[in-house]
Amino acid sequence: MEHITEGRGGLPVLVALADDHQLLRESVIPHIEDTGDIKVIINAANGRELVEAIEQAKALPDVCLIDIMMPDMDGFQTVPLLKKKWPQIKILILTSYLREAYVVQMIYAGVNGYLSKNSHPRTVKEAIRHVQEYDIYCNEIFCLKDIKAVREGKKVLPKLTQKELQLLRYCIEDLTYLEIADKMGTSQKSIEGYRHRLFQKTGAKTRTGLALFAVRYGYVAIDTGVSPVY
How far apart are CA 227 and CA 102, in angstroms? Predict the structure, then answer.
């Protein structure tokens, strides 16, 4: 039996959902409401609809579940606006876009978690409950250590070799490690060695952590092809 943790003194966690795919919204809602401790009060097709619905709502949602790519107002535009107007609302990204550059953008914007649309409904419910209670939901995409590094902004820059710098810059690209090895003219085993040393020198634990380090300290600039958050 699934463990249920209700929010706000036994009341259900109130959720707002924004995604431009109606079929996805219609399939997600019954799954996350089926245990009774989560209630979807806003069902929006884009960020603009979401913001307008929250402005008119009798009760604010506790958690917003938002896609990145939506027409009219996308996630990159919506998240900073939500954080400015209602900083108490927790934000979970639910998307198919898992590039490190997108995750980095959203960490800087202040989201509370980042989920793949391939996630099991139980995982989505767990994330909603977790951010409501503990503020942050961590998984293989969204690492607490990386988030703290961004929020604290304190780092002594290590000395990196040219190969390590090259790999660090490729970490922001939509490339596998095998593809990076090909571009660098070396073996995947060598890439793994460079990555291990980068983890040691930067304190990062994941590829996203390396991408965050690269962006924060000016080794690369983000170019996502979408509207920026800052």
Answer: 11
Kindly state the average pLDDT of the residues 202-229: 71
Annotate 136-175 with b (16+ C-beta within 10 A) or e (fewer): ebbeebbbeebbebbeeeeeeeeebeebbeebbebbbeee
Q: How confident is the model at residue 1 (pLDDT cuts 50, 70, 90)?
A: very low
- Dist CA 102 CA 208 (whole Å): 10
Here the tokens at position 177 are: 């490690």
Domain 13-142 in CATH 3.40.50.2300? The answer is: yes
Fold of 162-216: Arc Repressor Mutant, subunit A (1.10.10)
**Rounded to whole angstroms, how far apart are CA atoms 38 and 53?**
18
